[in-house]
Design a protein that fits this description.
This is Phage protein. By secondary structure, this protein is an all-alpha fold. Helices cover 93% and strands 0% of the residues. Helix 1 runs antiparallel to helix 2.
Length: 82
């Protein structure tokens, strides 16, 4: 395996290790806000909870797309190496 290929694999690995904790954080925040929202009767709290959940959903979509892109590159990298 060439040095530039190894560097690209290392870069992709670092990108994945950066994305996965962010995705987990968003998931935990989403669960917490959902739990708080279920107990709240206050209209303002419900509004902000909905807004936060919407933002979390958007970020999860972006992170999922980044993960898919990296996975695609890794799969193609393995095929090119063979």
């Amino acid at each position: 395996m060439r040095t530039d290929e190894l560097k690209e694999l290392e870069k992709l690995g670092f990108e994945l290790s950066d994305l996965l904790p962010r995705l987990e954080m968003i998931q935990h925040a989403s669960e917490a806000v959902t739990a708080l929202n279920r107990k709240a009767d206050n209209t303002t709290t419900a509004y902000f909870a909905t807004k936060v959940l919407s933002n979390i959903y958007t970020q999860m979509q972006k992170l999922s797309a980044e993960i898919d892109d990296i996975a695609f590159k890794l799969i193609n990298f393995e095929e090119e190496a063979e």
